[in-house]
Design a protein that fits this description.
With 103 residues, the chain is mainly alpha-helical. It has helices at 11-16, 18-28, 46-69, 76-83, 92-102, and strands at 8-10, 30-34, 41-44.
Length: 103
């Protein structure tokens, strides 16, 4: 995944003009703050991040409910090796436990 220049600011930009950077983050949804001597980070609105968290929790709960109640959903462990190739080395029980834990 790459970022566009419009989505990024330098840490120096953030330090020199935090208001402009905050306005850009509000307009774009988030901006990536790059730092020469440290990992990059994102500046985003808290409500946007909280919505993202709720969405992930909802999706996880949905997958877990499917595994528990829908016989067709037992195909999920069959799809796991496509996403996590190393699961081919797990036993059936370990694969199921990993799938449930992941979901």
């Amino acid at each position: 995944m790459s970022i566009r220049d419009a989505d990024a600011v330098t840490f120096s930009d953030l330090s020199r003009n935090p208001r402009a950077v905050a306005e850009r983050a509000a307009r774009l949804g988030r901006v990536r703050a790059t730092h020469r001597d440290a990992p990059d980070f994102y500046l985003t609105a808290a409500d946007r991040e909280e919505e993202r968290d709720r969405t992930l929790v909802t999706a996880s709960r949905l997958f877990l409910a499917l595994i528990k109640h829908d016989p067709a959903a037992h195909a999920l462990p069959l799809a796991m090796p496509e996403v996590f190739p190393w699961v081919r080395h797990l036993s059936r029980a370990e694969l199921r436990a990993f799938t449930v834990e992941l979901v």
